[in-house]
Design brief:
Blueprint lengths: L1 E10 L2 E11 L4 E5 L6 H9 L6 E6 L2 E2 L5 H7 L1 E4 L11 H9 L11 H5 L17 H13 L5 E5 L7 H17 L3 E5 L3 H7 L2 E6 L2 E7 L5 H8 L2
Parallel strand pairs: 3-8, 3-9, 6-7, 7-8
Antiparallel strand pairs: 1-2, 1-4, 4-5, 9-10
Helix pairs in contact: 3-5
The structure holds adenosine-5'-triphosphate.
Adenosine-5'-triphosphate binds next to helix 1.
């Protein structure tokens, strides 16, 4: 459903992504692996339209999104939980969630129950300012904000970075439940191989902005890990 084809993108003069192609299908969790700085976040931003493609295309359900603005991509059904969460610190938890509705394909004025049900801690802190939440709580808020728009493709950029193990477990459960529903495609950037192996179906490895390996998660063996992932 989401297809990236021969994508080239970068910042200013520098080319970061070269000839990147990948696919993510409904009900699948596809993991994007690679050492620091290889271009994983850059690829997420390019899919979301925050960075323009210089070559290649991003298509979704057969529609070419390559030239579309980020808002339109969101309204087409692509949800994004960015690295660093990007919560609005001065807004309340509930206001942060309401902002998620802006990306909804159908006009709704309340946050859908299913987005909140996955993170039961959030309703207990609706009045608190986003900036006062812990890192793990902000991560849950960012995740719920993306789910509020009922995305069909979910881009998750290092959702477990810097958060406590109990919330990592919660996030694993949420990703598994999304996968079990079979309606949403997930593209996940994650450094922890244990986490990746516990939720993923398929993986791509990036090195210097290019896909150098891909396969089912079962085929992710020590040799690939040593060659492309060990620091
Ligand atoms: N806004 C920017 N302007 C210029 N260069 C950038 C910008 N953001 C990232 N880069 C560069 O692009 C390259 C890829 O960065 P990117 O953040 O996509 O990597 P990554 O694989 O997500 O790394 P990490 O695991 O550290 O998040 C790096 O060399 C980085 O310095």
């Amino acid at each position: 459903m989401l297809a990236v084809q021969q994508l080239e993108a970068g910042y200013g003069e520098s080319v970061i992504l070269r000839d990147v192609s990948l696919k993510v299908k409904r009900g699948q969790v596809v993991c994007l692996l690679g050492r620091n700085g290889v271009g994983k976040t850059t690829l997420m931003k390019s899919i979301m339209g925050l960075l323009k493609a210089r070559e290649g295309s991003v298509t979704y359900n057969g529609k070419d999104l390559t030239k579309k603005a980020p808002g339109l991509r969101a309204k087409s059904g692509i949800g994004y939980v960015p690295q660093g969460r990007e919560i609005f610190a001065q807004l309340s938890v509930y206001e942060n969630l309401l902002l998620g509705l802006e990306a909804s394909r159908v006009k709704v004025s309340t946050v859908p129950e299913e987005a909140i049900a996955k993170f039961p801690v959030l309703p207990t802190m609706y009045e608190r300012r986003g900036g006062d939440l812990s890192g793990g709580q902000q991560q849950q808020l960012a995740f719920a904000r993306a789910l509020a728009a009922r995305p069909e493709v979910l881009l998750l950029d290092e959702p477990c970075e810097g958060i406590q193990p109990s919330i990592v477990d919660d996030i694993r459960d949420v990703i598994r439940s999304i996968k079990a529903d079979g309606q949403t495609a997930v593209l996940l950037v994650e450094q922890s191989l244990d986490f990746v192996k516990s939720v993923g179906d398929y993986f791509y490895v990036l090195e210097k902005g290019a896909v150098v390996w891909e396969g089912s998660l079962e085929s992710l063996d020590d040799e690939v890990i040593r060659k492309y992932l060990t620091v």
